[in-house]
Amino acid sequence: MATNKLPAPQLALLANTPVTNFGCEEEWSAHLVQLGIVVKRHIQIATEGALLGCASENEALGKLAVISDGAGQFKVLQHGLCWVHAERLVHKLIPLNEGHQEDIAQVRDEIWSFYKELKEYKKQPCDTKKSALSKEFDRLFTQKTRYELLNQQLKRLNKLKSSLLLVLERPEIPIHTNGSENDLRELVKRRKVSGGTRSDLGRQCRDTFSSLKKTCRKLGVSFWKYLNDRISQSNVIPSLGSLVLQKAHPASAY
């Protein structure tokens, strides 16, 4: 909350309150009103901070890492960068002569070779490979080419080393955002065809059912059976939240 510049008076109110657990969103909202935190921006910062605090207290959620294209809103928890998006900074450069073209092609080849080495590291991580990959990263992104714009992009990527190499500390995380990109593809196609929904309620329904469907698919649950189970109120199928936690920690008693 402090990092996102919640004003000191409001921050002090939240820090000194004896109440720290809330059973539902309504209880939390009522607590904020009672403390006098009513400005929309302050409510958002406080709520996001409380949710992150809750996640960090949960053993299954506290180790979550977010892999993104670098957009600021995704810089939460442990943040890693997508290598596919990082390489695009080099791929989109427009060469001015043959020398530039050759240097861009060479750097791109080196980046994708390094990417393959990271994929191999994920399969069999070890300290020796970790050290070697870190040194290779330094060499790759501090080299000088004949194209100044390419040098600037390499320098920019070099400053993002900790985020691009988060996989060396967390071999289990992905090194790209292909999964989330694929999840959004259906929504993008619908938007291209229809231009969007007619109302906010329609948007909420579309997004909710799309999320449920994709979550069921990832968990190996039939979406049709899930809907029938909930509509009939049989509740034979466990909550999707519990199934997600069970998949994240198979040995846990969720």
Keywords:
two-stranded parallel sheet; mainly alpha; 2 strands; 254 residues; 13 helices; globular
Describe the overall structure.
The protein is mainly alpha-helical and 254 residues long. Helix 4 packs antiparallel against helix 5 and helix 5 packs antiparallel against helix 6. It is built from 13 helices and two strands.
What is the topological layout?
Layout: H1 8-16, H2 25-35, H3 40-57, E1 65-68, E2 78-81, H4 83-91, H5 98-123, H6 127-142, H7 148-158, H8 161-164, H9 166-169, H10 178-194, H11 200-219, H12 223-231, H13 240-248
Parallel strand pairs: 1-2
Helix pairs in contact: 4-5, 5-6, 6-7, 11-13
* Whole-angstrom Rg: 23 Å
- Uncertain spans: none
What is the spatial order of strands in the main beta sheet? 1-2
The counted number of beta strands is: 2
**SSE order:** HHHEEHHHHHHHHHH
Q: N- to C-terminal separation?
A: 30 Å
Tally of individual helices: 13
For this entry, what is the oligomeric state of its chains?
Answer: single chain
Helix percentage range: 55-70%
* Overall pLDDT: 90
Largest sheet: 2 strands, parallel
Global geometry: globular
- The helix/strand class is mainly alpha
* Approximate strand percentage: under 5%
Summarize this structure briefly:
The chain has helices spanning 8-16, 25-35, 40-57, 83-91, 98-123, 127-142, 148-158, 161-164, 166-169, 178-194, 200-219, 223-231, 240-248, and strands at 65-68, 78-81. With 254 residues, it is mainly alpha-helical. Strands 1-2 form a two-stranded parallel sheet.
